[in-house]
Fold each of these.
Amino acid sequence: MIPAFDLSEELSNLQGEIHSALGSVLRSGHFINGPSVKALERELADYLGCSHAIGVNSGTDALVLALRALGVGEGDEVITTPFTFFATAEAVDLVEATPVFVDIDPVTLNIDSALVERAISPRTKAIIPVHLFGYPANMTSISAVAKAHGLHIVEDAAQAFGAQWNEKKVGTMGDVGTFSFYPTKNLGAYGDGGLVVTNDASLAEKVRVLKDHGASRKYFHEFIGCNSRLDEIQAAILRIKLPHVDSWNDKRRAAAARYSEALSNLKGIECPTEAAGAKHVYHQYTVRIQNGQRDAVRMRLNEMGVGSTVYYPTPLHLLPVYRANHVRLPRAEKAASEVLSLPIWPGIKPETQVRVAEALKCALSS
Ligand SMILES: Cc1ncc(COP(=O)(O)O)c(C=O)c1O
């Protein structure tokens, strides 16, 4: 069986370094708020080209903390995409604001920046663009709309570590950017982890305080915060992986180019593209299977030993928690019925991809 994702090669290449880093953390007896997190935060800020990086417990917490630091809360609306992982909207509800879903661009699958302006109301406080599957959202037009209407931007870059829009790393163009270090992400920990980045010193300080029980110093609690600290073990692992992330992203890009070359002339399938200014890091290589064939194609692939995944089968506005609002967003709904993510990871072998492509040709024609 060809899996949809495989960490085994990465693990075997890095295991010596990882074991010795884990040994150092264990021997140090310093597990929380220690030197590995501090060093990682500096290295991540340097890599991304921003002033402040704050390690937190998950990408979900990163979003919640970003919204809280910006003062988004009860009675506010936040515009976002319906075609993303649930956590994007869940974070908005967790701060007691309301997500307002805007339909997607059918080509990039990201929020359609041309539709954002129409969704703005007097209660709108922020926009959360998501760089879905590693493909940067159009930050030029989203920033222009936000500026014209005095709105905050929180970039959900959970799936797009290292992706760029006009040479800038995603996550660094809004007021705040958030990342997830979930193990399958382009930069993944071996457990949960997340990151908040910003160029605003006071927002950074607010996030630092909120993620540590609202205390600016020990036992001096100024706010109701939470416990959302990145731990030393995950930070030590991430420090080993960070120097490899560019080459891993290049390998993902090369793998994506091989798929596109093999598949783009086939009937009934649409391959991902890359707009001018966008550097896609292919967290997923997601095709669209047309003519209502997606589920049948996926089943045939499975029978031929090829794993694939549907991200996401239901757009957020149609999930039980949101569907009472009776919103219809036809492009997101169509995408949810057509998308299929093919096996991709940095070390995927070209011959494995040939097998995937052959199986897909066969599945499409049968
Ligand atoms: C777009 C998006 N936002 C937020 C998250 C939440 O990240 P985490 O799982 O680290 O909480 C994810 C995780 O899959 C995601 O894909």
Amino acid sequence: MDRRTDYLVVGGGMAADAAARGIRDVDPDGTILIVGADEDPPVRRPALSKDLWTDDDTTPTDVLLGTADATGATLLTGTEVTGLDPDAHQATTASGTIAYRVALLATGGRPRVLDDVPPGDRVVYFRTLADYRRLRRLAQRGSHVVVVGGGYIGSEVTAALAQNGVDVTMVFPEDAPGGGRFVPEIADQVSRRYADAGVDLRQGRTVTSTMSDDDEVTVTLDDGTTLTATAVVVGLGVTPDTSLAEAAGIALCDDGGVLVDEHLRTSAPDVLAAGDVASFVDPRLGRRRVEHEDNATTMGEAAGRVMAGEDVAYQHTPFFYSDLFDLGYEAVGRLDPTLETVVDHPTDDGTVVYHLDDGRVVGVLLWNVWDSVDAARDLVARPDPPDDLTGLIPKGDA
Ligand SMILES: Cc1cc2nc3c(=O)[nH]c(=O)nc-3n(C[C@H](O)[C@H](O)[C@H](O)COP(=O)(O)OP(=O)(O)OC[C@H]3O[C@@H](n4cnc5c(N)ncnc54)[C@H](O)[C@@H]3O)c2cc1C
């Protein structure tokens, strides 16, 4: 069936939801069509590895963002946009064409897949609500799950499963959970917390292959060890999903994302991009692409406003956060312990870690320190940071 819409949003994730809200704030009447490949409508993705496991009162329905009700948008779920012709203002799906006035690419990222670890019934590359449902069914109390990867997803899913009585083996190449983001003082604390929770940590190891049958999956590590498990969860990061943009001849950036200007416009007429897929100009840190909720929602909303004709620029330095058992953090910028680093931890309340590049603070980790994101943001990229950074951001609730 061929369709016509004022606003076409390609995606169906958090940036898509925020964009529809941004459009509706500016234009009460325009038609909005969201086309998303996921089988579910937009969800609050961070809850998939947190609240849904740690808060008994949170159900899958609670994590739906309620996009259609809030904005009046029409949602096509389980539908991929397979082609985009910016000059003709037309998109293509398996069921027909969509004529639009202005379009947004909010296609996010696709999980990185290991060659010899094919996705399957028991091998979950964890990203969607459907992945959550599948893992919930497989990961019963007392079952054994192998988690591959120590970054964001691997660390959170491991903690979530362990808190639900699942035996977890976590395999990752770094020395500690956290994907190499943490200075040794914090990395040690994290490793201890995981070990105390009974997690079998296989640090310094990678998975070379998996073999599934009807009942279990056998995992082989690079040292030849084999493990059997009910399920394997893989979290190795994502690559921006630029296939549609590339095929449409839209310019990409060296970092792999879709290049956007400060109004989130791509190189093609009337096509914008936002969220994980977009390479944007951060006013403090320069051009970058990140995979954070705050970025997806703030940028998505700005893009929606621009689509509807408002003259707004996206000038935001996003923050990000994670919860690992009873530990947690908020952060701004680059967490890179290979940079010059100042660790401020005179008290047990929390730790603030500053990363510097060329004399400027480029990243701040607020470890168990809350409500200080704005203070961290103010410091990032200040041309004249104080010589002594210790004590600058207060510990405990500010
Ligand atoms: C489990 C999990 C936990 C997270 N926890 C945190 C956290 O604690 N803190 C934090 O800051 N961030 C967190 N994040 C990251 C954050 O959720 C993402 O940055 C954000 O959701 C990105 O939103 P997006 O809309 O840009 O992309 P996505 O949410 O990836 O949505 C993109 C959508 O586009 C669809 N799509 C792609 N191509 C097409 C096409 N051609 N046609 C139709 N649809 C298409 C995809 O199917 C997908 O549904 C987490 C992410 C996950 C997966």
